[in-house]
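Sequence in, structure out.
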Amino acid sequence: MSKLKSGAAAALQDVLRDGMTLAVGGFGLSGIPADLIEAVRDSGVKDLTVVSNNMGVDGKGLGVLIEAGQVRKVIASYVGENKLFAEQYLAGELEVEFTPQGTLAERLRAGGAGIPAFYTKTGVGTLVAEGKPLAEFDGETFVLERAIKADVALVHAHTADTDGNLIYRYTAQNFNPVVATAGAVTVAEAEVIVEPGQLDPNHITTPGVFIQRLVQASDRVKDIEQRTVRPRAEAAEPAAPVPA
């Protein structure tokens, strides 16, 4: 049966609820499921716990959920690009659980693999480890981190087939693969959607077994958080010929 739905709103209409945990792929504004994020905003669902590497920027990406007042808690590794996020956090209006980036990726991967928890050295002796069980292995101290399993996961892929097999491209390969496996229900948006059998199995990153619903991503400009390139230098004048 095809997993393809008519649009983002239709794919999410019966799975969103207040107070749920939502895991979202991407990195800032790179490789984010923008259509699905906007559908969450438009649904009006609230008191969300959002798991993502960061919360985008003001007015874009996951920033639209912060702007709409729909988020209660964020589990992320970085929040520096979103001013409203910082304001709400400092005002005590938003709960934030900071997690080192590699630990966050592994918590999501573990959730998808059915591993309830794991030990890591990252964060030992810092605020990250406060209140968490510690254990010693081979003379070194490790902190116990719980896996993350989301009620709904949202991801963005470049190419998919209607069975839900996904191929990512460029920076969309960041958190999307681990987020895709960590959802009880995972909804993917893809820029190109083909029929089953048209994808090279060697190129598939996320097998369709992890994807419950699929939507066609809209053709939109892919935003950049901070454009830092320099103006292109003018071509140098050709050197004058050396006299014989």
